[in-house]
Design a protein that fits this description.
Strand content: under 5%
Structural class: mainly alpha
Order of helices and strands: HHHHHHHHH
Number of domains: 2
Largest sheet: none
Helix content: 55-70%
């Protein structure tokens, strides 16, 4: 059996169950706060194992067993984490662009193919509604009053917030 680093596991490894349970408890507390990507979970496990002073040989074995247990209880699901975050971004009172959500998920360590697949629920209509919220929040104006201020300021602001250029121009030109 190989761990996530591709190293062969020691088949005769004997687990210190008390240490394992303490580490598992810490990992579950971390996951209890909010859903985490597999990459975030791996980094957190590494930090915990170093904090507990676990040797490198034992670290790989404990890490593999933790990941098996977390997978068994469906904690290792990047698609669900991405989908939950996107749904939150869509229905949040704080508007976010599709581009900002995309970059955030990649920074969280979610594989690009998963992000591309899940981001499809973030439609152009949602993006336009979020742009409207963003403009109202930033400039204190609605779509009918865009002409009263410099359109270029609005365009620059929305592009900076990672809204798609074609949608920004569609939004500002339809005002």
């Amino acid at each position: 059996m190989e761990n996530r680093r591709g190293k062969k596991q020691n088949e005769t490894f004997v687990m210190d169950t008390e240490l394992f349970e303490q580490i598992l408890e810490k990992v579950l507390a971390y996951l209890d706060y909010k859903p985490r990507s597999v990459s975030e979970i791996n980094r957190h496990i590494d930090r915990i194992l170093k904090k507990f002073g676990v040797s490198a040989d034992t670290r790989d074995n404990i890490e593999t067993e933790l990941l098996k247990k977390l997978d068994k209880f469906s904690y290792l699901n990047d698609s669900k984490v991405a989908n939950d975050y996107i749904q939150n971004a869509i229905f949040s009172t704080k508007p976010r662009s599709r581009g900002a959500v995309y970059v955030y998920l990649l920074k969280k360590g979610i594989p690009e193919e998963v992000v591309k697949r899940e981001i499809e629920i973030f439609t152009d209509d949602v993006e336009l509604k979020n742009m409207q919220k963003e403009v109202e929040r930033k400039f204190g104006i609605d779509k009918l009053h865009i002409q009263e201020i410099n359109k270029q300021d609005i365009v620059n602001y929305l592009i900076q917030k990672r809204y798609e250029a074609r949608l920004v121009y569609e939004y500002t030109s339809s005002a």
